[in-house]
Design brief:
single chain; 332 residues; globular
Length: 332
């Protein structure tokens, strides 16, 4: 959930920045709006948000993937590992008091699966594992690495559609869901790398309206009709999630926000779209504080909005405090 920059010209794409902000609120709403509202609103049961985040992340990590610059790769991993390691400890300090043996065991499971203590970090765990796995594949196969990953993606879809992935992990303890979802996420991550590899936006930039229209039509049909076969999985299974992620990514990327010249509007977008990673990490902690107040118990979407606002404020403060320290990555 890093703040991406376009790999070709190093300029921010405001469309993607706005999309990331929308996706972050979408995730928060799914997690904290309440089960009755999730069941009521179809958009909250449409799991396009997390796959799109994964696609964006790997699109913008393509240069790191193909680079032999170890320093650059180390910085990338640091940015991911700092929140992955520290947030579960912070959560335990705030909410848990358990014996030391159980604490160590639970932390070990958290770091292995991303799902035991602070379950929202399964996404970050998947991201870290796939980053490392893809890098190993690139080291072993070099120019053939992307082809190898595409083949592995096909295998991933095969075991998803045959429900092998579901049957293996459904019977295991719930903290292994993070591992199951990593298998579902792998083809989406490879799609992100592939879109950058083929320089997708150079190919379609002269037909923006056409490709935005195509993308919106595809999303409309995926959202409203059972275009793809349904099968059991762990929310992000199947090619539908991948295609929806591609369409959202392309649509927002091609909207000409970057033609805006007004400095106030540009500054407002820059400010409003900051800290989505930190807000994501903080959401559960803030929710558990807010829900103690009667005022927020029945104000479902307002509660989610306030989670986002409080998360933003906390991140903006602590990024300044830790601006010269790696702890700043907890809030980016």
């Amino acid at each position: 959930m890093d703040s991406p920059k376009h790999s070709k010209n190093n300029n921010k794409n405001f469309g993607i920045e706005i999309l990331r902000m929308i996706l972050c609120f979408w995730v928060i709403s799914f997690h904290h709006v309440g089960i009755e509202k999730v069941l009521k609103y179809k958009i909250l049961k449409t799991f396009f948000h997390v796959p799109t985040f994964m696609l964006i992340s790997f699109y913008f990590s393509y240069n790191t993937f193909i680079s032999n610059n170890i320093i650059k790769y180390k910085k990338r991993l640091e940015r991911l590992l700092v929140p992955y390691i520290i947030w579960p400890i912070i959560y335990l300090i705030i909410y848990d008091s358990i014996n030391i043996k159980k604490l160590v065991f639970n932390l070990l499971l958290q770091y292995l699966t991303g799902y035991k203590i602070y379950v929202i970090l399964w996404f970050l765990g998947s991201l870290i594992f796939l980053e490392l796995f893809f890098k190993i594949i690139h080291f072993l196969f070099n120019k053939k690495s992307l082809l190898i990953l595409k083949i592995l993606s096909i295998i991933s879809y095969l075991i998803q559609y045959k429900e092998i992935n579901y049957n293996i992990f459904y019977s295991l303890p719930s903290h292994f869901i993070g591992v199951a979802r990593t298998i579902e996420m792998m083809p989406i991550a490879v799609t992100g790398l592939t879109l950058n590899n083929i320089d997708i936006f150079k190919r379609i930039k002269n037909d923006k309206i056409k490709y935005i229209s195509y993308s919106m039509i595809i999303i409309f049909f995926i959202y409203n009709y059972k275009v793809f076969s349904e099968f059991r999985g762990f929310l992000f299974n199947g090619i539908k999630q991948n295609i929806a992620g591609i369409c959202l990514f392309i649509s927002f990327s091609l909207i000409p926000f970057n033609n805006i010249k007004n400095k106030i509007i540009i500054s407002s977008i820059n400010i409003a779209t900051k800290y989505t990673g930190g807000i994501y990490y903080l959401q559960t902690i803030i929710f558990k504080k807010l829900i103690k107040f009667k005022y927020f118990k029945q104000r479902y979407f307002f509660r989610c909005f306030m989670i986002y606002i409080f998360g933003y404020i906390i991140c903006s403060v602590f990024v300044k405090i830790f601006r010269n320290n790696k702890l700043k990555y907890l809030f980016y």
